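dude i think i finally got it to work??
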Amino acid sequence: MNPDHTHRRWSHLRKILERSGPFCRPDFEPSPDTLEFLMENCKVLVIGAGGLGCELLKNLALMGFRKIDVIDMDTIELSNLNRQFLFRHKDLGSSKAEVAAKFINERVPGCSVTPHCCKIQDKDESFYRQFHIVVCGLDSIVGPEVDQRNDHIALELRRQ
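look at this
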């Protein structure tokens, strides 16, 4: 990857740090260490590799996050191809998580996506605790369960 492209890619992460939002603490001042953490150490989990998950994976990878995991239990069906752009006809019947990870890994230098082909309930709390950011891209009724688990973990971490 040429240096110019790398610099432009990381500029997207810089924009996140420069803009404060409604949930940002008023005393938050990003430092060069924060950017380095996001680029080098931050682990992101995307739950779901369907329509929302494909967009999330692409956006996170292109923004500059390097360590991304994706979890999805589903396989690719013909009806997915019109809206889940990481998948091709040759991928029918394959794991969404595996194909999505392979697609991103082959196209975004420096990004490593690790697939997990299982239900979210199959992973224990220690699995989820290893991530700094968890993004839910589910469109099923399991979504609220993920939100509750994340809220529980976040509250425990604040108490520590």
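The radius of gyration is 17 Å.
im so relieved honestly
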